[in-house]
Amino acid sequence: MGNNKRTHYGNAEGANCFRYFINRKVKLVFCERAKGINARIRRVYMNLQSAQLKDPTTLLIVSLLAGSLGVDRFMLGDTGLGIAKLLTCGGLGIWSIVDWFTVMGRTKEYNTTLLQRAIAGVF
Q: pLDDT tens digits for 64-73?
């Protein structure tokens, strides 16, 4: 995952607070008040590091170049739709064109779902 960073930013009402930056975009703030919370913070942070986030711009380029083969759908885990798109040559091109406009939003939804699962500890 690139540029992961943890910074300590002080003591708020008796709690040590830390900011976690992931790829300079996602910021999580944790304040620990008890010793048991520190283990949970480490577990969540390790889950966040192991999450395989996708870059929306990269998926847009993949969709433009190989979208009619369903590669963009396979990369987002939509195996069934990827196979359907592959067999229909991108829905005779119409499905591919629609995906050019929706792939970035679907990628952000995919990343959000991964982050929510990592924070919840469902990884």
A: 998 889 999 9
Same domain, 79 and 39: no
Q: What is the pTM of this model?
A: 0.61
Q: Cβ of 29: how many Cβ atoms within 10 Å?
A: 10
Do 108 and 69 fall into the same domain?
yes
Long-range contacts of 60-66 (CB under 8 A, 24+ apart): 60/100, 60/103, 60/104, 63/96, 63/99, 63/100, 63/103, 64/100
Domain that holds residue 74: 56-118
**101's tokens:** 């406009």
